[in-house]
Amino acid sequence: MIDATLHPDRLFPADPATRAIARSLFAKVEHMPIVSPHGHTDPTWWGDNPSFSNAADLFVIPDHYVVRMLVSQGVPFEDLGVGAATDPRAVWRRFAAHYHLFAATPSRLWLDHAFQTVFGLTQRLSETTADMFYDAIGAALATEACKPRALYDRFGIEAIATTDSALDDLAHHRAVRDSDWSGRVVPTYRPDACVDPEFDGFTDNLARLGEITGCDTTTWAGYLDAHRARRACFIELGATATDHGHPTAATLDLPQDEAAALFARVSRNAGAPGDAEAFRAQMLTEMARMSVDDGLVMQLHAGSSRNHSDMVHARYGRDRGFDIPARTDFTGGLRPLLNAVGMDSRLTLILFTLDESTYARELAPLAGAYPCLRLGPPWWFHDSYEGMLRFRERVTETAGFANTAGFNDDTRALCSIPARHDVARRVDCAFLAQQVVTHRLSEEEAHALIPDLTTGLAKKAYNL
Amino acid sequence: MIDATLHPDRLFPADPATRAIARSLFAKVEHMPIVSPHGHTDPTWWGDNPSFSNAADLFVIPDHYVVRMLVSQGVPFEDLGVGAATDPRAVWRRFAAHYHLFAATPSRLWLDHAFQTVFGLTQRLSETTADMFYDAIGAALATEACKPRALYDRFGIEAIATTDSALDDLAHHRAVRDSDWSGRVVPTYRPDACVDPEFDGFTDNLARLGEITGCDTTTWAGYLDAHRARRACFIELGATATDHGHPTAATLDLPQDEAAALFARVSRNAGAPGDAEAFRAQMLTEMARMSVDDGLVMQLHAGSSRNHSDMVHARYGRDRGFDIPARTDFTGGLRPLLNAVGMDSRLTLILFTLDESTYARELAPLAGAYPCLRLGPPWWFHDSYEGMLRFRERVTETAGFANTAGFNDDTRALCSIPARHDVARRVDCAFLAQQVVTHRLSEEEAHALIPDLTTGLAKKAYNL
Amino acid sequence: MIDATLHPDRLFPADPATRAIARSLFAKVEHMPIVSPHGHTDPTWWGDNPSFSNAADLFVIPDHYVVRMLVSQGVPFEDLGVGAATDPRAVWRRFAAHYHLFAATPSRLWLDHAFQTVFGLTQRLSETTADMFYDAIGAALATEACKPRALYDRFGIEAIATTDSALDDLAHHRAVRDSDWSGRVVPTYRPDACVDPEFDGFTDNLARLGEITGCDTTTWAGYLDAHRARRACFIELGATATDHGHPTAATLDLPQDEAAALFARVSRNAGAPGDAEAFRAQMLTEMARMSVDDGLVMQLHAGSSRNHSDMVHARYGRDRGFDIPARTDFTGGLRPLLNAVGMDSRLTLILFTLDESTYARELAPLAGAYPCLRLGPPWWFHDSYEGMLRFRERVTETAGFANTAGFNDDTRALCSIPARHDVARRVDCAFLAQQVVTHRLSEEEAHALIPDLTTGLAKKAYNL
Lengths: 464, 464, 464
Fold this sequence. Notes:
3 copies of one chain form a homotrimer.
Chain A (H helix, E strand, L loop, with lengths): L15 H14 L4 E3 L6 H6 L6 H5 L4 H9 L15 H10 L8 H14 L10 H12 L6 H7 L2 E5 L2 E2 L5 H8 L6 E2 L2 E2 L1 H4 L6 H12 L6 H17 L4 E6 L9 H12 L7 H20 L2 E6 L1 E2 L4 H7 L7 E2 L4 H4 L1 H7 L7 E5 L4 H10 L5 E3 L9 H15 L17 H21 L5 H19 L3
Parallel strand pairs in A: 1-2, 2-4, 3-5, 6-7, 7-10, 10-11
Antiparallel strand pairs in A: 8-9
Helix pairs in contact in A: 1-20, 1-21, 6-20, 11-12, 13-14, 14-17, 18-19, 19-20, 20-21
């Protein structure tokens, strides 16, 4: 069996002088609490505190990073328990036999970290160790110490946000609030299902939004009121932010009568070509205006071509690893919104991209000018060692640190949360150490900055 | 008070062997004269040699890098003396209190360098040291040693180009020529105001161009003649170059009758959609043809979406830090111009971009083929340590060094000139040291190249 | 004379600990055989085994990297023997006098390697050494040891693919097969001339394709059959792959009656605007379907704007260094093809790009999901030290190593083949060493991976 014990210097620069600085910075933040202002953990976990069932259900089947990599190398979805009921131990063995595929990927860093720090497994996962891992993880999952709320405490989480549909009843958030558990779990208002005319069941969703709120969502004014009402419910349960997943960063600021006419078309399924995109664009500006009023921080995750494979979507559903990024235009796209409310100090709009070519060209110049803008951390495919370094290298010289929003783990994989924050902290220490050794920052400045990068900026940007 | 003395090894690589090579290269060029073939210093300074008034007027209010960063963090323009008459000491204190925002930005490198080398201030600027800095800088500015021509000499400037409207009377350049001062200050022909139909006052500018030159600028032929006449005046005062700031790199080479018809439309404010862009595109090719004739080196600065915020533009004017880059297409855009005159050895066209994704994909392949093309140094947001390294890493393998045009400081901030050249020289030494230590260049080759990168290539590209 | 002996540590990282790991990895693969699954060597060499004539004909005149660099610095094509019969020694002297232009380019690495390892010349090429080099190379070329088949053996080539027109009679490949030489030289089916309606002589090419195959290429069905027939001929002579050079990555999957109508238009030269692009796009999907049937691995080289200068094309022909990359959209472009056959395990489609911004944004996510996709190595301008590092850094974290296709030298310059593989192996060792020293991979994993990166992945991807 191969020893895979995490090295204490992992992700630190090779040069000994630089590494020493990184180590000393990391010592300061390694054990700071985790602030997780954006992510996709299941509210059921926090509300009901159930046990997880087995290693395959925890680490493989729901993880689109893992599933897509195995599929890309010819493993059928069905063999991974997707689109078929498959024995979880068989799924796990298949995963273990292919674990070498993850060499040099962030998934490997996250998984090894979880195996070791949550389950005490320090060997390399492989065909040989598959059953041993499966059994050990299974046994641990049956204990109290591995139930969600216990993990929250073990992980040192200070606050965590979930991401919730505008149509969600937030029962689990209510359960947390009404419990005697001290964890801070807050919802995030994600209205895509009621904002995107191309979302499955959009017109039904509008009707449902009307029922929930008592607003007349057949009219533009009533529809906007319904959003306001739902936002208020989210705020009441602790929400500090909204989140918007859009294929592009296009925004519009139409005169209200034109917006109402556009709504009339899309809400009756009578949109012309371009109307769906126009409506999403208009709604970003409307949501920004609501944020000015109610104080919810706005997040925009733009640029993913969701469900790129029709067959995978039809047969296996959403979020199976077949969402592919495309070019994204922030400079032109955001202009209508920014002209409407971009100089208003009450607004915070946090931008995320999958198009790294926009970091230095568009996002840093925009965030380095408009008071409302902050840059979210590297997202999805870029939530990685190299991705984080590229982000810092391309963004910092123009936008500084204060125009960034700290780290988000953005995950539905609970056990990866400490690993992801660990990686982010290490990369930030590596980046600052490089600044110090090249005399762009003093060591004192780096020590003053690292707690901000770790949690300070996130708490400030998200009002947490 | 915190010591902020510049470290002699700043910006050199961390690895000791690589650093030693960088140091030895830098020793060769550290004190070479400054050649500044493109920039925006005020000709009044050189013609009249006035005293600067105070630290805020020198370092804060006119510096769009500084102002936009403070605005991005919620400081109102008015508090920075923009759009309001504000006590300069109050402006300075506000700037000093926010100086930490500039950590890890080029502005910090430039400002610290100027504070120390021009004013002898080696502490870190902060709320605590604000008044001390303000007073010391103010006292120095009152002396002869801090007047523009004295700074030119102290900075070791060998030649500097300003950037001047086609409508400028060049009186200050004439004053320099007619003075007994030995500084070499040359104008640069920047005709945007008379070439871009979307420029404020375009039609008035055409009329004015006619008055100045005696040409009939209501006709296409007369309009072109007017440009020829103005270029001749610039040449007479030492100009060696033109400069063109365009939103895109589009060029056109229309038949002359179509070009004349296009001019007729835009000059009468009767342009159709697309005419403004077409006219700018056509004029780049016309200007290239004029350069073939009169020998002026042509510069194209493409890709800035100027005045992105309507409100900032309306209330505070141009150049306030709200110009945001956008994607730029050089491969398709330049083709008509290059087909017209791209193989003519009499033309030099220096390209600048804000879209780094074009470095390796478009600019290096273009410059590594067409004899007329040279690549300008990293521009604006990319005039930075990381930006310069990215430029060299992406461009050199395809275009070599000889197809680049050396360094431009491109600044209106006089005291930052030595700092900017210092940064560029250090980064080039770091880059070459990296080449040497990985045995891609010999140390002798690096020593032969570094003076070229420092001033040789700039003098050659700009005929200075 | 300047010593230019290749340093054994060239291209390895500066940090001593990292360098030591790179050295140890390289020791394992330095002398492994060369597998060259994609390239442009002349089949005549392998079929006839002629002598090369002189240094200029071998190293300068046919090398578009060399010619374009000299042209970019003002050397006329004619002086380089292009478009004029020029004394080869004069061409060589001109090249030698400008050899400094190649400092820090891959061409320098390749040429120095060839001079030293093939011809034993360890001085730096320059005006001074020009004649000495010319004579020494000329003398060597007259010997048996420098004939193509001998070089194949000296270079340790295990298999090499050429790239051949769909209209080629493959006589030289037949000659190799029927000879007693043991070299493995296989053709690659490149049908651009019969697939791209904008290719010179397209309609004549269709007629010729009909003649060769006996298929009725005036009909859509007959035309597709003709491709099938030619592919079968290629397969019979050892081909394992096809190759497609397209200006974009656009694909289409039209209903067959629409495809037939489109073919009818373009084959009669009656295409509407957009038809040529649509036909190329449709044909990629048709070729993918044929690959599903006959097992040929498909390669797509997308994104070059060929013959950017009309004058150079008209006067000096194709492949003169005036092909310029442009932005390429894989996410949208490939979707129709991938929806048609992207989940079929019988297909392998290897993607190449000149637009590095697609590495992390599009190509790695696509290859990390679709089972048919593999990523080809950095192509053309990016076949370089920095280019290869960027590729690994941007691709690996999302796609892993197994979704890449190993190295291609992709060259028509026979003597550069060992040099190119040497560079690729060194960069991969440098990359893996960096992974090891930052504890992202164990040293054992790196040792297990390096033979795969060297030849294993290439053999697997290309079925060689």
